[in-house]
Design brief:
Structural class: mainly alpha
Order of helices and strands: HHHHHH
Radius of gyration: 37 Å
Number of strands: 0
Number of helices: 6
Length: about 170
C-alpha cells in the first residue's frame, strides 16, 4: 500500500504523528520516495519564485462595504416619519371596518377551525358584495376612470421616483 499525497504533504510540513511509519515506508518503497522527491522539488521551485506585487486589489469586490452612517440624513428621516404617519393613519381609519368583519373564533379542533374560516370567508365576500361606496360630491366636469387611474399611477410613480432619489446615495 502506497502513501497518499496528503500523508506526503503532512510529512513535508512536519504535521504528522506517523512520521516513523512514513519514513519506514519511504525506505522500502521507491515509488513513494520518488513522489516525495518530486513534491520537494515543486515546493523548492515555488519558494524560489520572486514576490510580485498585484496591479489591483483582487479582494476589493469581496470585502464588505462600510455600513450606513449611524444617523440617517434629516430629509430621509422626515420622509420615513411622514410615510409611517400616513400608514398609521390609514390603519387607524380602517381598523373599525376590519374589526366588524372579524368575529372571535373559537378553536376547538382543526376541522372546526377550517369550517369557521370558510364561513367567515363567505360572510366577508357577502359583506363586500353588499358594500356601497359613499357618494362623492359632484364636480363640475366629468372625470373618467381612465383619468382617475392615470392620476393614481402618476402619484405612485412620483412617490417611487422620489424615494429612489432620496435613497440613491444610501445604496452606493
Amino acid at each position: 500500500m502506497h502513501l497518499t499525497d496528503e500523508q506526503l504533504n503532512e510529512y513535508l510540513d512536519e504535521a504528522t504523528n506517523e512520521r516513523a511509519q512514513i519514513e519506514a515506508h519511504l525506505s522500502s518503497c521507491d515509488e513513494c520516495a520518488a513522489r516525495l522527491s518530486t513534491l520537494q522539488n515543486v515546493f523548492a521551485e515555488l519558494d524560489s519564485l520572486p514576490e510580485v506585487a498585484l496591479t489591483r486589489n483582487l479582494a476589493a469586490p469581496f470585502t464588505p462595504r462600510p455600513s450606513l452612517p449611524a444617523q440617517l440624513p434629516k430629509f430621509l428621516t422626515l420622509t420615513v416619519t411622514l410615510q409611517a404617519a400616513v400608514a398609521l393613519t390609514a390603519i387607524i381609519i380602517a381598523a373599525p371596518f376590519i374589526a366588524q368583519l372579524i368575529p372571535v373564533l373559537e378553536l376547538s379542533s382543526l376541522s372546526s377551525v377550517f369550517i369557521q374560516l370558510q364561513t367567515q370567508w363567505a360572510s366577508w365576500l357577502d359583506t363586500l358584495s353588499q358594500f356601497q361606496m359613499p357618494t362623492l360630491p359632484t364636480i363640475p366636469f366629468e372625470l373618467s376612470s381612465i383619468y382617475l387611474m392615470s392620476a393614481v399611477v402618476g402619484v405612485f410613480m412620483l412617490w417611487l421616483v422620489g424615494n429612489g432619489l432620496l435613497l440613491r446615495n444610501q445604496i452606493k
